[in-house]
Specification:
Length: 907
């Protein structure tokens, strides 16, 4: 293994101190093992076998890899290059999660270090032996990590992946082909991975698997950089050469990061130096079609610089979202550990654990039954799980559906009267028979003949109403029991969500089977019995009601029928179509009204039996409406509400837990081996995530400015990092940067606030902000001054990037005055900065936490601070003699006054 030196001037240009700190922070995250749980920014090198991947890696890193003969990469290799005063090499193995516990421990213990580079190849061979990789075939998912430090190393981390195989051979089986593709895909799909897709010019790029896989993993091409190797194998002036030149211009396969072309040394040429390789490459690109391409996409030195900046930019851009993801994973871990509870060995510990579960269960059940869904347990109502947890909403909807279903289809016959203008119903209802009134009267008449008692002609036996009602309402029981079953299922689903939320999986299953399910079964049986009781009066009793709605309905039906008969007789007599509008009856013809009188008198039903049938039908229909409304309310209130919903909180009550037998307590709350192992894993995972969070926090504190802009949190990276941007994140994430004792960030200020929150001992160097146009520091530009545009009260969203500069912390704090005066803002002061209106000649009388400047409007050039058109620039003024002892109360909204500038102080 040979390490080749680089030009240290190039290396120095690539790696500022802050860049090194940022990259080192990500390295610490990896070493802590956080990449098992969250995706970390990294560059992965992918390509088909023999595409020149290893040569690319060698040229980038200066580390010679075995690329001759039939040797190839048989496992992912993470190459970490760091600039350091001391030369060192270390090799370790990160076992894949598919390994069993013994293998993970064995491989994880493999760690070797060297003071020089001579024995590096032997170390790699030892690692291969540990991973059980032979000379042929056999690929591994384990990661080989090689860390190389030295004064002439580039600051870079690259993961080299096994080359993609097109088809199986004697040395490479079909399973090897599949395994390599799975490994490459798993790295490509990581959203924070930058894909370095290596394509060999020896073969048609359309036939190379790497492009297909890269496009599948990165559909928009936003994180893929293509690299063309072996351009010297193309015939000058050929169509193939022109095609690859077009590919390099990003015209054929478009990637947002573009393409790069390298000419590496032939592996068969023997020993060569890095300088010779670079010189040969330079000479090659100074000839032929390659001179027509932009020089920025040619050669290894520019690729090395490009990758270093690309990795840094990716890490800086992803850092806030990485912190958010770590927080989410940590929260999930804590939730799982909370479910597991503390280790439970003694009986008292086990019963205490169950009592805690009972308390949580009762509070969440009460919230669910009351319909107050504020607890995180309820989640998003738009999801199925979130809706199922809202038991009050579910039961309300089920009751509503039951009422609609029984109203539409609870009757056996739908009776309509065509003679009264009623039309045949269009929609069919399952189980409902459509019948005319006349035909139904025929059925009643037949029934009355069979049930006749002592009633006089024209009257009916009251028992006929019971028979008719029983036949008409025979579907009620099926609909009611179906509704009860639906409520019981909904309650059971709710309880499963509840118990799985408060308890671990093992305890949840045992608790549900031992306590919850039996208690729920008893409640559901009582609910069914109550339903039977509510059905009994309608199935076995005789009609009873004192509701005035019954008599009103009967009278209204009779009046409507009389009205319809009178209307028909009058229309026929006068020959008019409708009585809904006035009709003129003026005529010289004499009208005989005796036929009208006869028609009205003949309205009386001569058939007394038919009249009795009609009266019985009217009474049955009126009673059915009254009974139906009563039955719907009875099921909803007396059955559902009082027999099941009101008893949910008693299913796992503290009294039950207190008097639970000892053997049941042990069987429910006693810990299984699986629970103990899960607690160990979760504790380990949480420790890794917390360490990662602290690592990110240590880097971010003192290196970011933050504030809010149009209700969005803003984190801006320090200019010294070589990267200036505006990262918008939720305000909640900014709270982690605020030091203890300071108010949390929740302001709405149409501005950017830059704040230094490092320790008192940290002193940053003041830096100038390079803007779009350079401005001389001393001499004014000999041009007419351009008047600044006035800033309106309502500030529009500025689409340009906001430069957020972190000012140095002076030994003696100085206030800042904004001159010329700035317009008023919509303040809600809970930020680490305090702004107070004072007259220009007055000394500051108040001060607050923090230190920084407010800026608005369009970005402009400036030496100190940041200046925006229509805005202002911070300038130092004398500091007051006495420091404040407390943070002042939030200031009211400020009105713009010409003689009252805004001042800033830091405590």
């Amino acid at each position: 293994m040979v390490l080749k030196p680089f030009n240290t001037e190039i290396i120095d240009g690539l790696c500022s101190k802050d860049q090194l700190d940022l990259l080192d922070s990500v390295d610490r995250l990896r070493s802590q093992g956080i990449d098992h749980y969250v995706s970390l920014p990294q560059i992965i090198v992918c390509g088909d076998q023999s595409s020149g991947k290893s040569s690319v890696l060698e040229a980038i890193s200066g580390v010679s890899f075995p690329i001759k003969g039939n040797l190839c990469t048989r496992f992912p290799t993470e190459l970490i290059l760091r600039k350091s005063k001391h030369v060192g090499v270390s090799v370790s193995i990160v076992p894949h999660q598919s390994r069993n516990e013994a293998e993970r421990q064995s491989l994880g213990n493999f760690r070797e270090s060297l003071d020089g580079f001579d024995a590096l190849l032997d170390l790699i061979e030892k690692a291969k032996t540990a991973m059980a990789i032979g000379p042929f075939g056999a690929f591994a998912r384990d990661l080989l990590r090689i860390e190389i430090s030295g004064p002439d190393r580039p600051h870079l981390t690259i993961v080299d992946l096994p080359g993609l195989i097109h088809s199986e051979t004697k040395q490479q089986s079909a399973s090897d082909v599949k395994l390599v593709q799975e490994v490459v895909k798993s790295y490509m799909k990581e959203p924070r991975s930058i894909i370095l897709a290596v394509v060999s010019a020896k073969n048609d790029y359309a036939n190379q698997i790497v492009l297909k896989l890269a496009r599948a993993a990165d559909k928009n091409g936003t994180r893929t950089l293509g690299v063309i190797t072996k351009p010297d194998t193309l015939i000058p002036g050929s169509d193939s050469e022109a095609m690859y030149a077009s590919l390099a211009r990003n015209s054929e396969v478009e990637f947002r990061l573009g393409w790069h072309v390298l000419k590496n040394m032939d592996s068969e040429t023997g020993k060569w130096s890095l300088a010779k390789r670079d010189e040969t490459e330079r000479q090659f690109f100074h000839n032929g079609i390659w001179t027509t391409l932009p020089q920025s996409i040619l050669g290894i030195s520019l690729l090395r610089e490009r990758l270093s900046k690309l990795l840094f930019t990716q890490i800086a851009a992803e850092l806030p979202s990485l912190v958010n993801e770590i927080e989410l994973k940590s929260s999930a871990c804590r939730t799982q550990l909370q479910k597991l509870g503390q280790p439970r060995i003694s009986l008292d510990e086990q019963r205490l654990y169950l009592l805690k579960l009972s308390s949580l269960s009762q509070s969440l059940t009460k919230a669910a039954v009351d319909g107050t869904y504020n607890d995180p347990f309820f989640g998003d109502a738009k999801t199925d799980a979130g809706y199922q947890k809202r038991i009050r909403a579910v039961v309300q909807n089920l009751n509503q559906s039951f009422a609609e279903a029984i109203s539409r289809g609870g009757h056996s016959y739908l009776i309509f009267d065509p003679t009264a203008g009623e039309k045949f119903p269009v929609s069919r209802r399952l189980g409902v028979v459509f019948i005319t009134r006349e035909k139904y009267l025929d059925r009643i008449e037949e029934l009355m003949k069979r049930t006749r008692g002592r009633e006089l002609p024209g009257t009916f036996n009251p028992l006929i109403i019971s028979d008719l009602f029983l036949e008409q309402s025979k579907s009620w029981e099926a609909l009611a029991r179906s509704h009860i079953e639906a409520v019981a299922r909904a309650v059971k689903t709710f309880l499963k969500h509840l118990i799985s939320h408060i308890a671990d999986t093992s305890t949840c299953n045992t608790l549900f089977q031992t306590l919850i399910e039996p208690a729920l079964h008893t409640i559901v049986e009582d609910l069914k019995a109550k339903t039977t009781d509510l059905l009994a009066p309608h199935q076995r009793g005789h009609p009873i009601t004192y509701n005035h709605y019954f008599t009103e309905t009967v009278q209204n039906v009779r009046l409507e029928r009389s009205r319809a008969d009178f209307t028909r007789i009058i229309q026929n007599f006068f020959g008019i179509e409708s009585l809904n509008y006035p009709v003129s009856l003026r005529s010289s013809q004499v009208k005989d009204f005796r036929p009208l009188l006869e028609a009205l008198m003949k309205r009386s039903e001569p058939d007394m039996k038919r009249y009795a049938c009609s009266e019985a039908l009217d009474c049955m229909q009126a009673y059915y409406k009254v009974a139906l409304k009563r039955f719907i309310d009875d099921i909803a209130i007396e059955a559902v509400e009082f027999q099941i919903i009101s008893k949910l909180s008693d299913i796992l009550s503290p009294i039950k837990i207190t008097f639970l037998p000892v053997d049941e307590v042990a069987s429910i709350a006693g810990e299984s081996d699986e629970s103990k192992e899960m607690r160990r894993q979760l504790t380990s995972q949480l420790q890794v995530l917390d360490q990662g969070f602290e690592t990110c926090k240590r880097f971010m504190v003192g290196r970011v400015g933050f504030g809010t802009y149009n209700n969005l949190g803003i984190v801006g990276m320090k200019r010294g990092l070589g990267f200036v941007t505006d990262l918008r994140v939720g305000v909640g994430m900014l709270d982690m940067i605020v030091e203890p004792g300071r108010s949390k960030m929740s302001s709405r200020v149409s501005s950017v606030i830059s704040t230094h929150l490092d320790s008192e001992e940290s002193v940053a160097e003041e830096e100038s902000v390079a803007e779009e146009e350079p401005v001389p520091e001393e001499k004014p530009v000999p041009e007419e001054p351009v008047p600044e545009e006035p800033v309106p009260e309502e500030h529009p969203v500025v689409e340009e990037q906001h430069v957020v500069e972190v000012e140095p912390v002076p030994e003696e704090p100085e206030p800042f005055v904004c001159d010329p005066p700035a317009p008023a803002f919509d303040y809600e002061y809970e930020t680490p900065c305090m702004v107070a209106p004072v007259a220009a000649e007055e000394p500051p009388v108040e001060a607050g936490w923090g230190y920084g400047s407010v800026t608005t409007g369009k970005k402009k050039k400036g030496k100190k601070g940041i200046k925006y058109s229509g805005g202002y620039e911070a300038q130092p003024v004398p500091y007051p003699d006495e420091e404040p002892q407390s943070v002042p109360e939030p200031m009211p909204e400020l009105e713009p006054e010409p003689d009252r500038p805004l001042r800033f102080w830091n405590s």
